[in-house]
Design goal:
single chain, 6 helices
């Protein structure tokens, strides 16, 4: 009876466990299905959001492009108006300048010819002076390079000779030591051979001679190997020193050449700047309207032979012409601002 009750209890427990397993399995299937539904819903929502974002960005880009086109058209129209006004102003200024130049007369032409001659003489003197300085600097750099090369070659030659002498001394010492030991061993073998018996005398002598020959050949090989290693090491060190010397020499030569090239370039730029300043001063005198006092001050300041002329006739003439332009056209500053804004808009459009 108890056995039957135990079997019933075991069956009930197994049925309960099977029910639990089936429930867990159904719960897992439901969770997987819910997860799949959530993933599909998330993907659809994400796609919808991406579509709306793309549409919004495209709409904003089209609106921005339309606004930029409108602004560009407006600025181009205003720019054309300002350009026509500027052209008329420039024509008026040219007519006024031609009338003033004709009023000045021949005295201005004579004065400008003298100024041109003085400018040409000053530029020629400066060119000669800079050429002499460049030649002196090149010779000094060449002498310095030669001196450094000589010093380095003497130094490394002394080091190489010292290493060669040390190697020769070591080779001679090894040879003397090997020869001394060979003589001692030969005397010892001869002494032992004389003291042996008549029966074993020839056999022992032959064995000792063979062993002696083997020992001598092995020691000779070891000595030759040691000498060869020393020679290789010395040769490698000499090659390294030579390569280092060549690299250092090339670096010093390159540095000197770079210094000379940089100084030549600086001198050429200065000469070109001076020549351009002289040409500008000589060419801009006919179109300038400067009072007599300012002309005399510019001539005195240039004849002082300063490295860079501080005041020129063209620079003195610009303030008066700008003042006249400002009086005739009060919107000149607005035009510059408008032109800068147009340039900024073009940069933004390119970006």
């Amino acid at each position: 009876m108890t056995y039957l009750i135990a079997q019933i209890i075991i069956c009930l427990l197994l049925a309960f466990l099977l029910g639990l397993l089936i429930g867990w399995w159904l719960k897992g299937v439901g969770c997987k299905r819910r997860i799949a539904e959530l993933e599909a819903h998330y993907q659809s929502a994400l796609l919808e959001r991406n579509r709306s974002a793309v549409a919004l960005v495209s709409q904003q880009q089209s609106d921005f492009q339309q606004k930029m086109d409108e602004l560009a058209e407006v600025w181009l129209m205003r720019l054309g108006q300002q350009a026509s006004a500027g052209a008329s102003m420039v024509a008026d200024l040219e007519r006024d300048s031609e009338q003033k130049v004709q009023a000045v007369g021949g005295a201005w032409g004579v004065r400008m010819s003298q100024q041109k001659a003085a400018d040409a003489d000053a530029v020629a003197a400066l060119v000669n002076e800079y050429e002499q300085r460049l030649a002196a600097m090149g010779e000094a750099c060449q002498l310095q390079v030669e001196q450094k090369t000589r010093e380095i070659s003497e130094r490394y030659t002394a080091v190489i000779e010292e290493q060669d002498q040390l190697l020769q001394q070591r080779i001679a010492a090894l040879g003397n030591a090997c020869q001394t030991r060979l003589i001692q061993q030969e005397q010892a073998h001869l002494f032992e051979a004389k003291g042996a018996g008549d029966f074993w005398k020839d056999k022992a002598q032959e064995e000792k001679e063979l062993a002696f020959q083997k020992t001598v050949s092995a020691r000779e090989k070891a000595a030759l190997a040691l000498i060869g290693a020393e020679e290789k090491e010395l040769q490698q060190r000499i090659e390294e020193l030579g390569e280092a010397f060549q690299i250092r020499l090339e670096q010093q030569k390159q540095a000197c050449l770079e210094i000379i090239a940089r100084q030549n370039q600086e001198q050429e730029e200065r000469l070109v700047a001076l020549a351009l300043a002289g040409q500008i001063r000589a060419g801009s005198g006919l179109g300038a309207t400067v009072p007599e006092k300012e002309e005399e001050q510019a001539q005195v300041s240039y004849q002082a032979k300063e490295p860079a002329p501080s005041v020129t006739t063209s620079q003195q003439a610009e303030p008066e012409e700008r003042e006249v332009g400002e009086e005739e056209e009060p919107e000149g500053g607005w035009f510059k601002k408008a032109w800068g804004k147009v340039k900024d808009l073009e940069k933004k459009l390119k970006m």
